[in-house]
Amino acid sequence: xxxxxxxxxxxxxxxxxxxxxxxxxxxxxxxxxxxxxxxxxxxxxxxxxxxxxxxxxxxxxxxxxxxxxxxxxxxxxxxxxxxxxxxxxxxxxxxxxxxxxxxxxxxxxxxxxxxxxxxxxxxxxxxxxxxxxxxxxxxxxxxxxxxxxxxxxxxxxxxxxxxxxxxxxxxxxxxxxxxxxxxxxxxxxxxxxxxxxxxxxxxxxxxxxxxxxxxxxxxxxxxxxxxxxxxxxxxxxxxxxxxxxxxxxxxxxxxxxxxxxxxxxxxxxxxxxxxxxxxxxxxxxxxxxxxxxxxxxxxxxxxxxxxxxxxxxxxxxxxxxxxxxxxxxxxxxxxxxxxxxxxxxxxxxxxxxxxxxxxxxxxxxxxxxxxxxxxxxxxxxxxxxxxxxxxxxxxxxxxxxxxxxxxxxxxxxxxxxxxxxxxxxxxxxxxxxxxxxxxxxxxxxxxxxxxxxxxxxxxxxxxxxxxxxxxxxxxxxxxxxxxxxxxxxxxxxxxxxxxxxxxxxxxxxxxxxxxxxxxxxxxxxxxxxxxxxxxxxxxxxxxxxxxxxxxxxxxxxxxxxxxxxxx
Length: 567
What we know:
Blueprint: H1 2-17, E1 25-38, E2 53-65, E3 68-77, E4 90-101, E5 105-112, E6 114-116, E7 122-124, E8 126-127, E9 132-133, E10 136-143, E11 149-163, E12 166-182, H2 183-186, E13 195-207, E14 220-232, E15 235-244, E16 259-270, E17 273-283, H3 313-317, E18 327-339, E19 351-366, E20 381-405, E21 408-420, H4 421-424, E22 433-446, E23 451-462, E24 464-470, E25 473-478, E26 484-493, E27 497-505, E28 517-527, E29 530-539, E30 542-546, E31 549-553, E32 556-566
Antiparallel strand pairs: 1-2, 1-32, 2-3, 3-4, 4-5, 5-10, 6-7, 8-9, 10-11, 11-12, 12-13, 13-14, 14-15, 15-16, 16-17, 17-18, 18-19, 19-20, 20-21, 21-22, 22-23, 23-26, 24-25, 26-27, 27-28, 28-29, 29-32, 30-31
């Protein structure tokens, strides 16, 4: 792999020097740097690191020339910013590949990202905000032998971490094959039919040596299944089902149960109306290239989250929901409706209404006659969409947006979120199910051709629970950290400048000394593909989640400087 990196680097320098004369040469990339200088703040639990200053830097370079492709990423953690895995350290090459592609074949050697279907069998991807990167190091081959047919094969180690400037791989090898066929594209007689049908199937296997002295562990664990998608006019229906072999791990307590996952999506879309219905059943589907890892480490597959992705700070980061790979039965329904322009309710510009409902329950595990202590170590029997009455998550929200004039718009939102803290472990201060009500008022105002103002006012209110305050005496006390309020003001001067001030106030904390303000101010400058942002203030601890994958971010107080550049 060191030779691959050297070849890419030498090729980049050589081609860059000839870019004036090589027709078809394309060199692109981006740079991202985040610098933090942190202070100690005992009130919010923020510690000052020994180095005081922290730095994350990345630079991607991608080259394509005719059928040739190559790329690499330099990474630097000096040391890493807070919230990133503690094994990220040093400066070096964090990703590199070379390959060739045309209409028939696409081959990559080195680091690559890939997804089979919805990702329930395999998803190697990067999310820089989460500090998540589980690419595969090895060989990827894609062949398109017929119109509408795509065959994929992958073989390699997963990236686990980046230590002392070097890529560190997970303990197991990942092998996989995926095939997909668009039936309408493959058969000319069906090209113009209204019903479009696509089918596919995946098989993934991992190998990890059995190094457990107490148990006999399977060294090869397979996961396989199929999928189909139907589209007819305004309607779309797709489904996927996966089965996993016996896979004892830290996640499931080293039991020998098999696993399964099912996902169904139905949608309808026309002008002014959109409907989405989804259902998911997951049981014992934690699938890692290293059976001893936890949290977000070494996941081979990805289980799509059936809940809406929220952007408001009190909604997205106080009580987020993380997908439960060991088991969940989840449902989601969403409706987007636009009231026509010019009507009494719609107004001059129309009014958009978005309503969403999502929920998840623990699966019902039939334990009669099963015991994890017997010779089989099969702990229970699980069935598809067989749910218990144990709530994991519920989110009911509605959003109304209306533009009143060319210079003024208003958005009103309400969220009712319940999360089972005993399972999701959102907070150490909460008990049982946390029920929260969140209201948001957002306005946008244009103050001229270049000046605009956006204001958010958010309020979060949590339920009270009965607690024994003194021996034998129970009182109703606020759950978790109590109620919150947030004010955000953003001012923009097009096309370059933006300013923002935010204050989050935990005014409802049961501890009067912790009814604190988390104030944060930032200023940014944008010029073409360059963006510079400077911010200073407090940031509370919490979970940052994207698509059901979360990372913990500790409390901090200090300066943050970020720089991004694309080329």
